[in-house]
Structure formats: structure tokens, C-alpha cells
Specification:
The chain is α+β, with helices and mostly antiparallel strands. The chain is built from 2 helices and 2 strands, in the order H-H-E-E. It has a domain at 12-56. It has helices spanning 12-18, 22-37, and strands spanning 46-50, 53-56.
Length: 65
Amino acid sequence: MADRRIVTFGGYFEAFIAKLPERVIQKIDYGLVLLKTMDRLPAKHMKYIEDGIFELRTETDQEGI
């Protein structure tokens, strides 16, 4: 089981997530739990950027989000 540390930068994530509906926040939280605890995730859920930086990907059925 992985034990990754999740770090956000500059308050951008917090400002972004504060504007989202609760259902979307729950999906993002679920993705963060997967990222933090799972050894491997499918490319559907994350993308490696560089130097240990990953992009978390979450699908939603809400238009414009």
C-alpha cells in the first residue's frame, strides 16, 4: 500500500474546490484517497507530469466543470 503525501500550491486547489458542488468534491476526495493509498492507479485517474508531480483526473456529469 502506498503512502504518498499530497501537496497543493498557492491556495489554487482550495479556491477551485470551494466553488464546486458537494457531489464533485466527494469525487475529488475519493480520487485523492486512491492516489494517496493505492500503489498503482490507471491512467484514467492520474497523469504523471514531471519530478513526482501528478495530475488527478476526475470525471463528472455536470456540464462546465
